[in-house]
From TrEMBL:
UniProt function note: Part of the tripartite ATP-independent periplasmic (TRAP) transport system.
Entry annotated with the keyword Glycoprotein: no
Main location as per UniProt: membrane
Keyword field: Cell inner membrane, Cell membrane, Membrane, Transmembrane, Transmembrane helix, Transport
Membrane-topology annotation of the record: Multi-pass membrane protein
Molecular-function GO term, any one: transmembrane transporter activity
Protein name, UniProt field: TRAP transport system, permease protein
The species this protein was found in: Afipia carboxidovorans (strain ATCC 49405 / DSM 1227 / KCTC 32145 / OM5) (Oligotropha carboxidovorans)
Chain segments annotated as transmembrane: 34-55, 61-81, 88-106, 141-158, 190-209, 274-300, 312-333, 354-373, 379-402, 409-425, 431-448, 469-487, 557-579, 591-611, 623-652, 664-691
């Protein structure tokens, strides 16, 4: 049953650096084997730490960074070096970086004892660590992020010579290096803590689900449900990418997995190449705002705000649904405008049959979500979800060799009873028993033919997960420079005072400034560091302007994602371009148009916090909290519906310029916060709706067949 849901081949996407993935494999010959083994060791270490956290947090962060530097230098040189000597030199540098990280564990007690009074060796190790993180980030992601962090470092060293209010009191070399390399507000700050715990675990969780065949399940269910509707292939792309977002936090990874199937299918059924690629780019980037994973930012946000992870997930649910509903609405209107039809019935797989064959793949995801909302830590929930996924994969390979269905049922029922017995004393299961069950399944798989092949696939998933975690981990490490500089110098208050000063006159202008900052930063650096920087600079200022704290952080997060859809960079568009065989700039502009809701939803949430399930909504005093949630959701739905009509120029028939202008005004009324703004917006929207309905084309007349003489 598992074999039917095998993984699909990925389309290779050539980018300027390794930010969105390495080539297939681990490199040539013995060097590739070395990288593969270190990747397995890295993943194994992370699993052990997640299950049995027996090391101090600072030591875990150090070893995590050490592995990232070692494997990053190793893989980059494996793929770019031309001689074995060059590869050996790259691996040697990586080994030095690994020792710098290991230093936090080897001398942990001594470092704690002499905190604030570093030795010369401490300063040397800390300096080398910083140089390798900067250079490693450049090798993985290009120069933009290192240049930005380098500018912050220069300010940290020489900012005392600037005029007020930009100057600070000045800091010595040893103060800066100690703060960066040995504290919890520099390289080893909250971002790297989250990378060393939650992020890696959920990357591994997603990799195992993909290995089990989740991509094919999502695609088949989407095809069965929407393939036959008007413009069905594009709707399949939106729904399948939304489903992929529940297990994958990478927009570009979604483009090159789901997009390899959906983009050619959309083009085949009449969508323009740029529009088809734009649909996939928009839907795939939306995967970063789709709970429960949310591109790993949810974990960082929860740690930063000091709230339960479930609080962040709940706040993201309605906006994420609106984002994908908007993309769905856009492709529906585009299909109507150009008369595009759906797929033929015989070309569409049965959604029910796909669920019947692969329903068990959804169990780990359901268990994960249940545990997160029940208050378990993401680390525990992710560990249990991963264990359940591995048990399902190994169990499926074991029963595949059974000659009779009865034996298969007996096996699954027995396994379910064993797992169920672990919960007899409550849901907080001892991870040792879970590990024992997985160990037994591994032992059984090792003596069966199909089981051995599955174990190899699982081993490959461990190594691939380590490879996938490198760019995220390196970004989390280097962005510690900005966090450390801001916490020690207090320069963030300068930008915050600008936002607050602007917001006192116009909150809207303060939001626009924050949006522009997020998009500008996001054009050069990944979403995670973009969020961290903007959240540190602007989110506290917005909260002082009576914007709920979670809403202000989500505001910064959303526009960091939108940057990947906004030309001239538009990395998601670059990833889709070789699949669609179209110009990336054209794809980027189409994606911006399709993702219009993504640009307005954060503004709606600021003025109607109930959209993110936060208190303080203006309507809450009139109709209660849940009434305000429903009202905000309905208003936002109508607003993004109007924006869709404006962008596509169609509802029941093609819209004139005047109709599009009136629709745009109605949408702005719904976004506004002035007297009778909502009432005016609803009224104008109704006028546009009925005007378009009245102009709709009459259905074709059916001509009765004439009888033959």
């Amino acid at each position: 049953m598992l074999q039917e849901y095998g993984t699909q081949e990925h389309v290779k996407v050539e980018l300027d650096n390794f930010e969105h993935g390495f080539p297939d494999g681990f490199g040539p010959g013995r060097w590739g084997h070395l990288a593969y083994l270190i990747g397995i060791a890295f993943a194994t270490f992370q699993i052990i730490i997640a299950a049995w956290n027996f090391l101090p947090s600072q030591a875990v962060r150090g070893i995590h960074v050490g592995f990232i530097i070692l494997l990053s230098y190793g893989l980059v040189t494996n793929f770019t070096a031309k001689t074995n000597w060059q590869r050996a030199f790259g691996w040697a540098i990586g080994a030095v970086g690994f020792y710098c990280g290991l230093y936090q564990w080897l001398y942990y007690a001594d470092l704690v004892a002499r905190d604030g009074d570093p030795t010369n060796l401490d300063l040397v190790i800390g300096t080398i660590l910083g140089l390798l993180i900067f250079d490693g980030t450049r090798r993985l992601m290009g120069a933009a992020l290192p240049i930005m962090c380098g500018a912050c470092l220069l300010y940290w060293f020489f900012g005392q010579y600037l005029p007020s209010p930009f100057n600070h009191r000045g800091y010595d070399f040893d103060q800066i290096i100690t703060h960066l390399s040995y504290g919890t507000e520099g390289f080893y700050g909250v971002p790297i803590y989250v990378s060393a715990t939650y992020i890696f675990l959920f990357i591994l969780f997603g990799a195992f689900l993909e290995r089990a065949g989740m991509i094919k399940l999502f695609t088949d269910v989407s095809l069965g449900a929407f393939g036959g509707t008007r413009g069905g292939p594009a709707k399949v792309a939106v729904v399948a990418s939304g489903m992929m977002g529940t297990i994958s936090g990478s927009g570009v990874a979604n483009v090159v997995t789901v997009g390899q199937f959906t983009i050619p299918l959309m083009i085949k059924f009449g969508y323009r190449r740029a529009f088809a690629a734009g649909v996939e780019a928009t839907a795939s980037m939306g995967g970063q705002i789709m709970p429960p994973v949310m591109g790993a930012v949810a974990f960082i946000m929860a740690e930063t705000l000091g709230v339960d992870y479930a609080v962040i997930v709940k706040a993201a649910v309605i906006p994420a649904a609106l984002y994908f509903a908007s993309a769905f609405w856009m492709v529906h209107l585009e299909a109507g405008k150009h008369g595009l039809v759906g797929m033929k019935k015989e070309e569409i797989p049965s959604a029910l049959k796909a669920l019947a064959n692969g329903w068990f793949l959804v169990l780990p995801l359901i268990a994960l979500i249940f545990m997160l909302f029940e208050g378990f830590t993401p680390l525990y929930a992710g560990s249990m979800g991963l264990a359940l996924t591995v048990a399902l994969i190994l169990g499926a390979s074991i029963v595949a060799g059974f000659p009779h269905k009865v034996l298969r049922y007996i096996f699954w029922i027995g396994l379910a009873l064993i797992v169920g017995s672990l919960f007899r004393n409550g849901s907080n299961v001892d991870i040792r028993y879970v590990a024992a069950i997985v160990g037994v399944l591994v032992g059984i798989s090792a003596i069966t033919r199909g089981g051995r092949a599955t174990l190899v696939a699982c081993r490959d998933s461990l190594a691939d997960s380590a490879k996938s975690s490198l760019t995220v981990g390196m970004a989390c490490a280097i962005v510690g420079v900005i966090i450390g500089m801001m916490t020690q110098t207090g320069v963030g208050t300068v930008f915050g005072s600008w936002v607050i000063g602007l917001g006192e006159h116009s909150l809207f202008l303060a939001l626009v400034l924050t949006m522009i900052l997020s998009i500008l930063l996001g054009t050069g650096i990944p979403t995670i560091p973009t969020y961290i920087i903007v959240a540190a600079l602007a989110a506290p200022a917005l909260s002082k302007l009576d914007v709920p704290l979670i809403v202000s952080h989500m505001f910064a997060f959303y526009y960091g994602i939108m940057a990947d859809l906004s030309p001239p960079v538009a990395l998601a568009a670059f990833a889709a371009a070789p699949i669609a065989k179209e110009n990336p700039d054209k794809i980027g502009w189409e994606a911006m148009r399709i993702a219009l809701a993504g640009y307005v939803i954060p503004f709606i949430a600021v003025y109607s916090p109930a959209l993110m399930l936060q208190t303080g909504d203006p309507m809450e005093a009139k109709i209660g909290f849940y009434g305000a949630v429903v009202y905000a959701t309905v208003k936002a739905t109508i607003a993004i519906g109007l924006f869709g009509m404006v962008a596509i120029g169609f509802l029941f028939t093609r819209m004139t310029v005047i109709e599009r202008i009136v629709s745009f005004i109605a949408a702005l009324f719904l976004l506004g916060e002035f007297t009778y703004s909502d009432e005016l917006g609803f009224a104008v929207a109704l006028v546009v709706f009925f005007w378009q309905w009245r102009k709709r084309p009459a259905p074709p007349l059916e001509v009765a067949p004439q009888s033959s003489a």
